[in-house]
Amino acid sequence: MSTQPYLDDATVGTELPPLVKEPTTRQLVMYAGASGDFYEIHYDKDFAAEQGLPGVILHGALKSAYLGQLMTDWMGAEGQLLSLSVRYREMDVPGDVLTCKGTVVERDEEAGSVRCEIWIENGAGVRTTTGEAVVALPAR
Amino acid sequence: MSVLTPAMQAAVGRDGEPRTTIIERGAIERFAAAIGDDNPAYADVAPPTFLRSVGLAIPTLPDSEAVPRVLDGGSEWTYGEPVRPGDAITFVTQMENLIEREGRMGSMLIATYVTRYTNQRGELAATQRNTLIRMPAA
Asked: Alpha-carbon distance A99 to A95, whole Å?
Protein backbone atom coordinates (compact mmCIF):
# COMPACT_ATOMS: atom_id res chain seq x y z
CA MET A 1 0.00 0.00 0.00
CA SER A 2 1.22 3.47 -0.86
CA THR A 3 0.43 6.97 0.33
CA GLN A 4 -2.99 8.43 -0.43
CA PRO A 5 -3.09 9.89 -3.97
CA TYR A 6 -5.10 13.05 -4.56
CA LEU A 7 -6.97 14.04 -7.70
CA ASP A 8 -4.41 16.76 -8.48
CA ASP A 9 -1.55 14.24 -8.41
CA ALA A 10 -3.22 11.80 -10.81
CA THR A 11 -2.32 13.49 -14.07
CA VAL A 12 -2.70 11.75 -17.41
CA GLY A 13 0.27 9.43 -17.85
CA THR A 14 0.69 8.74 -14.13
CA GLU A 15 1.75 5.12 -13.66
CA LEU A 16 0.20 3.06 -10.89
CA PRO A 17 2.59 1.14 -8.62
CA PRO A 18 2.84 -2.33 -10.22
CA LEU A 19 1.48 -5.34 -8.32
CA VAL A 20 3.32 -8.64 -8.76
CA LYS A 21 1.47 -11.94 -8.32
CA GLU A 22 2.93 -15.42 -8.43
CA PRO A 23 -0.10 -17.72 -8.57
CA THR A 24 0.30 -21.37 -7.57
CA THR A 25 -1.99 -24.37 -8.05
CA ARG A 26 -2.66 -24.08 -4.31
CA GLN A 27 -3.96 -20.54 -4.86
CA LEU A 28 -6.23 -21.78 -7.67
CA VAL A 29 -7.71 -24.33 -5.27
CA MET A 30 -8.18 -21.62 -2.63
CA TYR A 31 -9.87 -19.40 -5.22
CA ALA A 32 -12.08 -22.26 -6.38
CA GLY A 33 -13.22 -22.77 -2.80
CA ALA A 34 -13.66 -19.09 -1.98
CA SER A 35 -15.43 -18.20 -5.21
CA GLY A 36 -17.43 -21.40 -5.68
CA ASP A 37 -16.07 -21.85 -9.23
CA PHE A 38 -15.17 -25.54 -9.29
CA TYR A 39 -14.67 -25.91 -13.05
CA GLU A 40 -12.01 -28.65 -13.20
CA ILE A 41 -9.79 -26.84 -15.73
CA HIS A 42 -8.50 -24.81 -12.77
CA TYR A 43 -7.16 -27.67 -10.60
CA ASP A 44 -7.38 -31.05 -12.42
CA LYS A 45 -4.43 -31.39 -14.81
CA ASP A 46 -5.81 -34.48 -16.58
CA PHE A 47 -9.19 -32.84 -17.11
CA ALA A 48 -7.52 -29.68 -18.44
CA ALA A 49 -5.44 -31.73 -20.89
CA GLU A 50 -8.59 -33.49 -22.15
CA GLN A 51 -10.02 -30.05 -22.85
CA GLY A 52 -7.05 -29.26 -25.06
CA LEU A 53 -5.41 -26.95 -22.52
CA PRO A 54 -1.68 -26.87 -21.71
CA GLY A 55 -2.45 -27.64 -18.06
CA VAL A 56 -4.54 -26.03 -15.36
CA ILE A 57 -5.20 -22.35 -16.00
CA LEU A 58 -6.06 -19.39 -13.83
CA HIS A 59 -9.68 -18.45 -13.30
CA GLY A 60 -10.29 -15.31 -15.33
CA ALA A 61 -12.05 -13.86 -12.31
CA LEU A 62 -8.89 -14.33 -10.21
CA LYS A 63 -7.13 -12.06 -12.68
CA SER A 64 -9.97 -9.54 -12.30
CA ALA A 65 -9.40 -9.74 -8.56
CA TYR A 66 -5.69 -9.01 -9.06
CA LEU A 67 -6.54 -5.93 -11.12
CA GLY A 68 -9.08 -4.93 -8.48
CA GLN A 69 -6.26 -5.07 -5.91
CA LEU A 70 -4.02 -2.99 -8.21
CA MET A 71 -6.67 -0.27 -8.02
CA THR A 72 -7.54 -0.51 -4.31
CA ASP A 73 -3.83 -0.58 -3.31
CA TRP A 74 -3.28 2.61 -5.30
CA MET A 75 -6.44 4.58 -4.47
CA GLY A 76 -6.03 4.17 -0.70
CA ALA A 77 -8.66 4.42 2.02
CA GLU A 78 -10.11 7.66 0.65
CA GLY A 79 -10.42 6.52 -2.95
CA GLN A 80 -13.54 4.88 -4.33
CA LEU A 81 -13.61 2.33 -7.13
CA LEU A 82 -16.49 3.20 -9.47
CA SER A 83 -16.00 0.61 -12.18
CA LEU A 84 -13.67 -2.23 -13.15
CA SER A 85 -13.74 -3.82 -16.58
CA VAL A 86 -11.48 -6.74 -17.52
CA ARG A 87 -11.06 -8.86 -20.68
CA TYR A 88 -9.24 -12.17 -20.69
CA ARG A 89 -7.21 -12.29 -23.90
CA GLU A 90 -4.79 -15.14 -23.20
CA MET A 91 -4.72 -17.91 -20.64
CA ASP A 92 -2.41 -17.70 -17.65
CA VAL A 93 -0.87 -20.62 -15.84
CA PRO A 94 0.34 -21.15 -12.26
CA GLY A 95 4.10 -20.83 -11.83
CA ASP A 96 4.29 -17.75 -14.04
CA VAL A 97 5.06 -14.31 -12.64
CA LEU A 98 2.23 -11.90 -13.42
CA THR A 99 2.63 -8.15 -13.14
CA CYS A 100 -0.45 -5.92 -12.89
CA LYS A 101 0.10 -2.44 -14.27
CA GLY A 102 -1.93 0.68 -14.95
CA THR A 103 -1.76 4.21 -16.27
CA VAL A 104 -4.07 7.19 -15.83
CA VAL A 105 -5.54 7.96 -19.27
CA GLU A 106 -8.30 10.48 -18.53
CA ARG A 107 -9.37 12.89 -15.82
CA ASP A 108 -12.89 14.12 -15.04
CA GLU A 109 -12.45 17.17 -12.83
CA GLU A 110 -16.19 17.61 -12.30
CA ALA A 111 -16.75 14.04 -11.15
CA GLY A 112 -13.47 14.02 -9.23
CA SER A 113 -12.45 10.80 -10.93
CA VAL A 114 -9.79 9.37 -13.21
CA ARG A 115 -9.93 6.56 -15.76
CA CYS A 116 -7.04 4.13 -15.87
CA GLU A 117 -5.96 1.63 -18.45
CA ILE A 118 -5.00 -1.55 -16.63
CA TRP A 119 -3.45 -4.82 -17.71
CA ILE A 120 -1.58 -7.96 -16.67
CA GLU A 121 1.72 -8.94 -18.24
CA ASN A 122 2.92 -12.51 -18.00
CA GLY A 123 6.57 -13.48 -17.50
CA ALA A 124 7.18 -13.23 -21.26
CA GLY A 125 5.88 -9.64 -21.30
CA VAL A 126 2.61 -10.54 -23.08
CA ARG A 127 -0.51 -8.59 -22.05
CA THR A 128 -2.78 -11.54 -21.31
CA THR A 129 -5.46 -9.48 -19.63
CA THR A 130 -6.57 -5.92 -20.33
CA GLY A 131 -9.14 -3.55 -18.98
CA GLU A 132 -9.96 -0.23 -17.46
CA ALA A 133 -11.04 1.17 -14.14
CA VAL A 134 -12.53 4.44 -12.93
CA VAL A 135 -11.76 5.69 -9.43
CA ALA A 136 -12.87 8.76 -7.52
CA LEU A 137 -9.99 10.41 -5.65
CA PRO A 138 -10.16 12.98 -2.86
CA ALA A 139 -9.36 16.65 -3.46
CA ARG A 140 -6.46 17.98 -1.47
CA MET B 1 -22.42 -25.94 -38.63
CA SER B 2 -24.48 -23.52 -36.59
CA VAL B 3 -24.67 -24.14 -32.86
CA LEU B 4 -27.09 -21.29 -32.20
CA THR B 5 -30.61 -22.76 -32.08
CA PRO B 6 -33.96 -20.89 -32.20
CA ALA B 7 -34.66 -22.02 -28.61
CA MET B 8 -31.38 -20.45 -27.49
CA GLN B 9 -32.21 -17.27 -29.37
CA ALA B 10 -35.60 -17.11 -27.66
CA ALA B 11 -33.89 -17.05 -24.25
CA VAL B 12 -32.22 -13.68 -24.93
CA GLY B 13 -33.66 -11.07 -22.58
CA ARG B 14 -34.76 -13.63 -19.99
CA ASP B 15 -33.99 -13.31 -16.28
CA GLY B 16 -32.94 -16.18 -14.05
CA GLU B 17 -34.62 -16.84 -10.69
CA PRO B 18 -33.57 -14.13 -8.19
CA ARG B 19 -31.51 -15.42 -5.27
CA THR B 20 -30.58 -13.94 -1.90
CA THR B 21 -27.39 -14.62 0.07
CA ILE B 22 -26.32 -13.40 3.50
CA ILE B 23 -22.74 -12.11 3.35
CA GLU B 24 -20.56 -13.76 6.00
CA ARG B 25 -17.44 -12.14 7.39
CA GLY B 26 -15.59 -15.47 7.09
CA ALA B 27 -16.47 -15.73 3.40
CA ILE B 28 -14.94 -12.28 2.81
CA GLU B 29 -11.82 -13.30 4.77
CA ARG B 30 -11.44 -16.52 2.75
CA PHE B 31 -11.93 -14.65 -0.51
CA ALA B 32 -9.32 -12.01 0.40
CA ALA B 33 -6.88 -14.78 1.41
CA ALA B 34 -7.54 -16.66 -1.85
CA ILE B 35 -6.69 -13.64 -4.00
CA GLY B 36 -3.66 -12.88 -1.83
CA ASP B 37 -4.86 -9.44 -0.70
CA ASP B 38 -4.08 -8.55 2.94
CA ASN B 39 -5.79 -5.14 2.87
CA PRO B 40 -7.05 -4.55 6.46
CA ALA B 41 -10.19 -2.89 5.06
CA TYR B 42 -11.57 -6.37 4.28
CA ALA B 43 -12.35 -6.92 7.96
CA ASP B 44 -15.38 -4.71 7.33
CA VAL B 45 -16.03 -4.49 3.58
CA ALA B 46 -15.84 -6.89 0.63
CA PRO B 47 -13.13 -6.69 -2.08
CA PRO B 48 -14.28 -5.40 -5.50
CA THR B 49 -14.85 -8.79 -7.12
CA PHE B 50 -16.11 -10.60 -3.99
CA LEU B 51 -19.64 -10.89 -5.38
CA ARG B 52 -18.29 -13.54 -7.79
CA SER B 53 -18.57 -15.85 -4.79
CA VAL B 54 -22.34 -15.49 -4.43
CA GLY B 55 -22.71 -16.91 -7.94
CA LEU B 56 -24.97 -15.83 -10.75
CA ALA B 57 -28.71 -16.33 -11.13
CA ILE B 58 -28.57 -17.24 -14.80
CA PRO B 59 -31.63 -18.24 -16.86
CA THR B 60 -31.47 -21.76 -18.33
CA LEU B 61 -29.82 -21.91 -21.76
CA PRO B 62 -31.77 -24.40 -23.94
CA ASP B 63 -29.74 -26.88 -26.03
CA SER B 64 -26.59 -26.02 -24.07
CA GLU B 65 -25.48 -29.70 -24.10
CA ALA B 66 -24.17 -29.05 -27.65
CA VAL B 67 -21.71 -26.47 -26.30
CA PRO B 68 -20.35 -27.94 -23.06
CA ARG B 69 -16.98 -26.18 -23.01
CA VAL B 70 -17.15 -22.81 -21.28
CA LEU B 71 -14.54 -20.07 -21.11
CA ASP B 72 -14.86 -16.83 -19.21
CA GLY B 73 -14.32 -13.91 -21.59
CA GLY B 74 -14.36 -11.08 -19.11
CA SER B 75 -16.28 -9.07 -16.61
CA GLU B 76 -17.36 -5.42 -16.24
CA TRP B 77 -18.30 -4.19 -12.80
CA THR B 78 -19.94 -0.95 -11.81
CA TYR B 79 -20.15 -0.21 -8.12
CA GLY B 80 -22.74 1.35 -5.85
CA GLU B 81 -23.04 0.78 -2.11
CA PRO B 82 -20.24 -1.16 -0.37
CA VAL B 83 -20.93 -4.82 0.50
CA ARG B 84 -20.44 -5.54 4.22
CA PRO B 85 -20.70 -8.58 6.50
CA GLY B 86 -24.33 -9.24 7.39
CA ASP B 87 -25.73 -7.73 4.20
CA ALA B 88 -28.50 -9.69 2.45
CA ILE B 89 -27.61 -9.45 -1.22
CA THR B 90 -30.33 -10.24 -3.75
CA PHE B 91 -29.21 -10.83 -7.32
CA VAL B 92 -30.70 -11.71 -10.64
CA THR B 93 -28.99 -12.33 -13.98
CA GLN B 94 -30.38 -11.50 -17.39
CA MET B 95 -29.11 -13.02 -20.61
CA GLU B 96 -28.46 -9.79 -22.48
CA ASN B 97 -27.17 -11.08 -25.80
CA LEU B 98 -26.15 -14.26 -27.60
CA ILE B 99 -24.22 -14.40 -30.85
CA GLU B 100 -22.36 -17.04 -32.81
CA ARG B 101 -18.86 -16.48 -34.08
CA GLU B 102 -16.25 -18.50 -35.93
CA GLY B 103 -13.12 -18.47 -33.79
CA ARG B 104 -9.73 -20.12 -33.98
CA MET B 105 -11.24 -23.14 -32.19
CA GLY B 106 -14.33 -23.43 -34.47
CA SER B 107 -17.91 -22.29 -33.87
CA MET B 108 -18.51 -20.59 -30.58
CA LEU B 109 -21.33 -18.86 -28.81
CA ILE B 110 -20.67 -15.59 -27.07
CA ALA B 111 -23.20 -14.90 -24.35
CA THR B 112 -23.38 -11.73 -22.32
CA TYR B 113 -25.14 -11.69 -18.97
CA VAL B 114 -25.93 -8.78 -16.69
CA THR B 115 -26.32 -9.38 -12.96
CA ARG B 116 -27.72 -6.75 -10.61
CA TYR B 117 -26.89 -7.05 -6.92
CA THR B 118 -29.02 -5.14 -4.41
CA ASN B 119 -28.74 -5.04 -0.62
CA GLN B 120 -31.37 -5.40 2.11
CA ARG B 121 -32.17 -1.68 1.86
CA GLY B 122 -32.93 -2.01 -1.85
CA GLU B 123 -29.76 -0.09 -2.78
CA LEU B 124 -27.75 -1.16 -5.80
CA ALA B 125 -24.44 -2.64 -4.63
CA ALA B 126 -23.05 -3.57 -8.05
CA THR B 127 -23.79 -4.70 -11.54
CA GLN B 128 -21.63 -7.22 -13.33
CA ARG B 129 -21.68 -7.80 -17.08
CA ASN B 130 -20.13 -11.17 -17.94
CA THR B 131 -19.04 -12.55 -21.25
CA LEU B 132 -19.11 -16.35 -21.47
CA ILE B 133 -17.79 -18.25 -24.48
CA ARG B 134 -19.36 -21.67 -25.09
CA MET B 135 -17.91 -24.21 -27.52
CA PRO B 136 -18.69 -27.73 -28.76
CA ALA B 137 -16.82 -30.60 -27.05
CA ALA B 138 -13.08 -30.82 -27.84
From this structure: 13
Rounded CA gap, A135 and A107, in Å? 10
Exposure pattern of B63-82 as b/e (b: 16+ CB <10 Å)? ebebbeeebbbbbbbebeeb
Q: Which fold has domain A7-23+59-136?
A: Thiol Ester Dehydrase; Chain A (3.10.129)
CB A62 within 8 A of CB B50: no
Per-residue pLDDT reduced to its tens digit, B51-83: 999 999 999 999 999 898 888 999 999 999 999
3 state SS of A62: helix
Among left, alpha and beta (phi > 0; psi -120 to 50; other), residue A67 is: alpha
Q: Which of residues 76-105 of A touch B (CB under 8 A)?
A: 77, 80-88
Query: Considering the entire predicted model, what is its pTM?
Result: 0.95
Nearest CA in chain B to A87: B74
Find, in chain B, the residue whose alpha carbon is nearest to that of A28.
Answer: B34
User: Quick one: angle between helices B25-35 and A25-35, nearest 10?
Assistant: 150
pLDDT digits (tens, 9 = 90+) for A38-48: 999 999 999 99
Residues in chain A within 8 Å Cβ distance of B131: 87
In chain B, the domains with their CATH numbers are 6-23+55-135 (3.10.129.10)
> pLDDT tens across A11-22, in order?
999 999 999 999
Number of CB pairs, chain A paired with chain B, less than 8 A apart: 101
Q: ipTM of this predicted complex?
A: 0.95
